Amino acid sequence: MIQLPFLENVDLEPLWNNDIDNKLAMKHQLLFAKVDNHPSTIVQKETLPLALNHLSKLEIDYPIVELDEGSFERLSQKFREIQTGSDFENVDTTSGDDIIEVESDLLDFIRNSQDLLSNEESAPVVKLVNSLFFQAIKKGASDIHIETLEKKGEVRLRINGALKKHLDIDKNITSLVISRIKVISNLDISEKRIPQDGRTQVSISGNSLDIRVSVLPTYHGERVVMRLLMTSESIPTLKTLGFTDDITVDLNKLLTHPHGMILVTGPTGSGKSTTLHACLQHIATPDKNIITVEDPVEYNAENVNQIQVNAKVGLTFAAGLRSILRQDPDIIMVGEIRDAETADISLRSALTGHLMLSTLHTNDSTSAISRLMDMGIEDFLLTSTLLGVLAQRLTRKLCTNCKKPTHLAPPTLEELDLPERVYFKAFGCTECDFTGYKGRQAVGELFIMNDKVKEMMKDGLNDHQIRIEMKKLGMRTIADKLKDMLIAGDTSYEEAIRIGIMED
Questions:
Q1: Are 500 and 491 in contact (CB under 8 A)?
Q2: In angstroms, what CA-CA distances link 221 with 179, 194, 227, 330?
Q3: Dihedral of alpha carbons 174, 178, 184, 190, sign
Q4: Cα–Cα distance between 138 and 130 in angstroms, integer?
Q5: Alpha carbons within 13 A on the beta-carbon side of 413
Q6: CB 12 within 8 A of CB 33
Q7: What are phi and psi of 237, to 5 degrees?
Q8: Are the C-beta atoms of 275 and 446 separated by less than 8 Å?
Q9: Which pTM value belongs to this model?
Q10: Are 496 and 486 in contact (CB under 8 A)?
């Protein structure tokens, strides 16, 4: 018995050999790839006799390497992506469910039914689009990107905040897929020159899913981004968001106030809306009237009255907020403070006895003060209404199955004031889909508007000076929390840099 070199849990790139019939080789479970920069013949144990039998008929003398089943399937899928041609057999699309669960099966399906993909209403296109939704949900994606490139189409999924390529599709099929998405989102199929926004609801394997759709014309054709929106069951609790106990306890105290304003700040995609909805669920009781004005309504919450902003008919944040105040609310949530008018009405309603929650785009918690002042808000209004500001980010956590120990350079340790010890870096395995990261955790800093801060503001200190004083008084910043995660081995140095460990 020949003992072949064996590799497992690897992600090899295909080596397409134009001198042979690749399609026939694939049929005989025979693949080719570079292993340590050497062209190699790739086989798997299950189909070894079949592969070696076919190899004996070819004039190829690459070394033979055996892979585990998962790694072989990944490489095989990449070969199927490369493989093109028109001699595919028709498939019966009427039998079976309207969902394909595995990407490799989906690629086969696309190839085999190319001549049936005639228009956006045809069964294969419907099946293809449904399968994309299903696979996105299964992988825990928040967005699906479908792009038209020069010679092909590409589908990417945003998983844990980072985009990852899902599959390549033929350029003609891409336009049919985009047309199908437009049909279910009530958008104009014939209009390909202007951006369009829509919303749709699909039912995939018993689950109802809200999807926000944005179509944009680009140089090579249209591209679509779909945001998968959450239902009320998927709103996390304050405990499960991942904040440290000190923040959770202090935030709970702020939420017990009968009136005042609480702000959540951070860049796009840092989980601000999720935190606000977790706060609302925490304080929602039958004796409270909670009304929100959002753009768009991202979580469909049952015990909350939600208003969707519609600029076309004049329903802006400010107009919606004015109407809300006549609806006898106890708690108001404004999706975002974008302009001076919204800021002014929000703070004045907090002053007149409502608990107001909102978001603001700032890098840290203390700069929310100067941002509001730039909008023309007076000092007295700020000091008397603002309860606290929570700045947050979402940090990817290292996959516990494959993270590797690493050492940071002494200048780096010195700059970040970190102890000399073993840290960890991302590697990649089957568990984490070769990204090196699995799941995300919220890190935040909570700036509470106490008497000391009010004194500092009265003395004319700017937000940078207030931040320095607050740190002296023990406020733990996002950078501090990232250092804790680094030391605990929960995240990598690269991820900490991306999130903002250097910003302090």
A1: no
A2: 12, 11, 20, 48
A3: negative
A4: 12
A5: 12
A6: yes
A7: -85, 165
A8: no
A9: 0.74
A10: yes
Q: Which two tokens stand for residue 362?
A: 């700032």
C-alpha pair distances (Å), 463 with each of 93, 476, 499: 63, 16, 21
Neighbours of 328 (CB within 10 A): 9
Question: Residues 6 or more apart from 143 whose CB is under 8 A from it?
Answer: 157, 158, 225, 226, 227, 228
At a CB cut-off of 8 Å and minimum separation 6, what does 383 contact?
A: 449, 453, 454, 457, 458
Are the CB atoms for 9 and 73 separated by under 8 Å? no
How would you write the pLDDT of the chain (504 residues) with one tens digit per residue? Answer: 567 889 989 888 888 877 788 888 888 899 999 888 889 999 998 999 999 999 888 888 899 999 999 899 888 878 876 753 322 222 232 333 456 666 566 666 665 555 445 555 556 788 888 888 888 888 888 899 999 999 899 999 998 888 999 888 888 888 888 988 998 888 888 888 999 998 888 877 666 778 889 999 999 999 999 998 866 667 788 888 888 899 999 999 999 999 999 999 998 888 898 899 999 999 999 999 999 999 878 788 888 999 998 888 999 999 999 999 999 999 999 999 999 999 999 999 999 889 999 999 988 999 999 999 999 998 889 999 999 999 999 999 999 999 999 999 999 999 998 999 999 999 988 888 888 998 888 999 999 999 999 999 888 888 899 999 999 998 999 999 999 999 999 999 999 998 888 776
Identify whether 286 is preceded by a cis peptide bond (ω within 30 of 0).
no
